[in-house]
Amino acid sequence: MKTIITTPSSELAYSDFLRGGDIVHLPDLDTAPADELLREVTAHGARGLIMSRRPPEAFLRHWCQSVPGTTYLSYVTGTPSRSAPRDLVEFNHPDGGLASIATALSGFERRFTLQHAPAHPALPASGSRETVLIGAGVVNLVTALYLWRDGYRVTVLDRSPAPGGEHWRRYGCTHAGDDARMFTFTEMDGYNNQDFHGRPPAHFRLPVDQGGWLAAGDRPLSPSERAWIDEFERVPSWLARAYNQDIFAFTAEAFHEWTALRQEHPNLFEDVVLTDGVLRLYADPDHHRAALARHCALGALARELTPGQLSEEFPGLAGAFETGALAGGFLVPGFTVGVHRFTQRLVTFLQERGVVFHWDTPVRWVRRDGTGTVTGFDCPVPVPADAHVVASPGVDGQALLMGSPCEGRIQGVLGGWMRISNEHARLPHSLKVGRKGHVTEDANVTVARDGDGRPTLIVGSGYGYTGVGTDADEAQLDAIRLGIIDTIERLFPDQAHRSASSRPADNYDFKYCVRPWTATSLGIYHAETTAHGGLFVINGGHNTGGFAQAPAVARAVLASLGDQPHPMHALYHPERFTAFMTDAASATTAPRAPAASRI
Q1: Residue 359 to residues 78, 176, 350, 381, 521: CA-CA distances in angstroms?
Q2: In this structure, are 182 and 107 located in the same domain?
Q3: Where is the FAD dependent oxidoreductase domain positioned along the sequence (predicted)?
């Protein structure tokens, strides 16, 4: 959306506010006559305007008449009037330099998204209660539970074997990797640039062993993969912050849903190593202070602790504080579970109540007619023609996205896992460890148990971009493995030698899974009507937060099938970024137009 910023701010020239979008900076128009301002905004076709003062009513009427659709105005001083044009959306924002401009732009974008997202398809008149879920990852399993509770007949199809019986590499993200998942209020945090003065991180341009996240090795990237990386780098800081606010809002919704599930179905959480409270730790003092302020602002702080208190209450971490490997930390609300145990209990629970599972049953293709309408599914098991179909395909399900707005938007970033004993550290809480600039920049250390019931810690971390597939270069996998070993040795210097997985020559305890990511860090939610009167819903791409947001996704699916709105339908729409941002703008100050006649 074309937007003009007139508020003077020399900092804008050194920020990424003007990057990647149709936004121009005309600072000398902030106090210009109304007719000159009108000439400029109409010449640029601007639908958004950010000023330090509210312009005259006559200007607003002429502006709204000259620009089709809704217009968006943000200002510091002034009061809305009753005579304002009907199609004008106004925002007051405090005078805070770049922060206030970011608030104004994000307000424009969010309102634009909610008003202009493609219409969610109306529920067909057939009112079918038949649902088929493609993919048996944790998001779809939780969705299956919600659908069953709401009276739908549910069938689940998955390309992999029944969980637990085969080598871990045969499974998708939920059932591969290791037996650990975490919920905190900041799960699925975005990795796009959120620093007003910073540049897009080059995560996906450099291989892991050179400090980046690229794990594809020497193979050339496809056009789809290059486009994905370009989009990641195009998201400006103010928009990345706005996206994060929406992500965290859905995570907060999911927290209430998880709390209700634990109360209503306590048996699902028995013997899954459910552990409440997560201890966040930081290697860098500035990172620690910034994270503490952020969690306080989100209302996601349970307890602040000094390094001395942390060492005293968690003696297994005392060595890390003594060596300077850790600078500080605090306790946040959240929980962790053994995801393999949890999903096995959930599958059993659903099967006992009539939900049908078909394992080793890939859905290879979505059939569409000449108009692009879904007509069926290429699957060994017949999918009822009028069924509602919900696909949460992960990275391996690229064919299911073909012909939809989701095509090419979900790609893979792997993470690795290793285990050490918890008998010595005796940690009562799982950990989230921040090491800025390290291969394992964010590490989850999850309280767990091994197959014999002994207490263990599962250390999961690392980022390795695999693109549209799941194959990773062995050298880059090794760099992630060595990075996890380094994190283990720094966190637990007196016991790292006890773990077989800490031996560099031993690969047997290293596992990984390839997580579905999006370039914007937003999840994906898309729904369309099929030719036979059902809905086809696609969700996924939740980066590191699929487990955390699973019940919120389930609520959005229920809303779709019940012909009800849910914010996720618009805010996770796959074209949210491209609908608002255009390729036409440059990061330079716009040229001045000739003076206009008086209003």
Answers
A1: 62, 15, 15, 10, 30
A2: no
A3: 132-557
